[in-house]
Please model this.
Amino acid sequence: MTVVTLPSSRRSRPSPRRREPEIIEAAARVFAERGFHGATTQDIADVLGIRQASLYYYFPSKEGALELVCLQGVGGFFEVAKAIASGPGTAADKLTRLIKSHLSPLTDRSDFVRVFLNERQHLPPESRRRIGKWSRGLEQAFESVLKEGVRRGEFRSDLDTRLAVLGILGMANAVANWYRAEEVAIDRVSAEFARLLVAGVAKRPKPRRRSIAARRSGR
Amino acid sequence: MTVVTLPSSRRSRPSPRRREPEIIEAAARVFAERGFHGATTQDIADVLGIRQASLYYYFPSKEGALELVCLQGVGGFFEVAKAIASGPGTAADKLTRLIKSHLSPLTDRSDFVRVFLNERQHLPPESRRRIGKWSRGLEQAFESVLKEGVRRGEFRSDLDTRLAVLGILGMANAVANWYRAEEVAIDRVSAEFARLLVAGVAKRPKPRRRSIAARRSGR
DNA sequence: GGCGCTGTCTATAGCTCAATAGGTAGAATT
DNA sequence: AATTCTACCTATTGAGCTATAGACAGCGCC
Model:
């Protein structure tokens, strides 16, 4: 005999919140445009055409909304980067793919990315640390590829990999701030930057010996 | 500094606002740390050990303070860059010097630079445009050097100079955000970045000998 | 056809903050 | 000695903002 399965259970589906994606996107847009502290909940409500107080049906606080936006700003990033870094290919090839994949979300999620990059510092300490792990993981993915390149002799042996990572990410992250104004496709940016950076870290053709590239393990 | 008293002038401007530099520096520090909208005038007053209302003896509004900080954040930059760009030397050499001079203010004025880079968007439209001219001038200095390099055959002929400028400035400007946390001297950063970027834009191998990498680029 | 749930509303509490008004001690000037 | 000016102060106003409280319309469901 089946016990009546709580038709109106408190444990039933928490809350559908059908429009939540739409609400978070509006928040992302407003935060990206005006900055977290420069934006008001009223601004977000205006974008959606609802009342300011109605927003609190969807998020518990303004800071909560920021966290949701930031989470979507890094979402998946790190996993993809890690997969590329530990996957097959030359270091130069991997670096190129890392850059491409790092920039690709800008085509359709630039607001989320911008908020993550520029506003995450205003998160309460706890969630900031939680999200900070993603960032550091990403840096490590890049750095491991650079180190691999150095080890294999593809890249300059005196390369400061830490500085190079910071430089590469600086260059790449800045794209979020101008790519709408400049009229240019992300793929073109990725390609140009990848080429520039790979050439920048590559070992110069000083040694006329063909040894290094051929020296890779196996074969 | 003791003021030399002007003999017979009631129009003399005695010594107005002696502490102004100190006040603006405090504002820069607070704006850099918390962002313009995240900072309160009370925060600035706390740094100085004076009352919040007393600040209005030195600036007319919070936005006015931001403008003063931003002005000092770009101060002189552009002139120096222009001088380098139109001066003597190879393009690679000039690019190196541009990067060095672009990063050098970070040693002692990083707060001002950070505020200029991150908060200038919150200026009222008028002063933002006024300050925006400085930025564009700087971009042009970099771009003219890149174009010169291409023209002279130092740099790749298919280099997208606009994207390269944006990339270079992105890489360089990001330094302001991490160089305190990372323990590294600015000179080292300049040197590493300059080397990386010059190699990145340079025409591949000096075509004196056949090299392995040569067949990659155009032929 | 009453019930509960979702998604919105109105109204407002409670607080923070920029900015103004007006006062004054003390140094500098006359 | 009187006056002026600098560099603060106290007190307060008024606006704007986040967040809460509580009502309720429509809908799907037994």
Q: What stands out?
A: Residues 5, 14, 40-42, 52-53, 56, 60-62 of chain B lie near DNA strand C (CB under 10 Å from a C1'). Chain B touches chain A through 43 residues (CB under 8 Å).
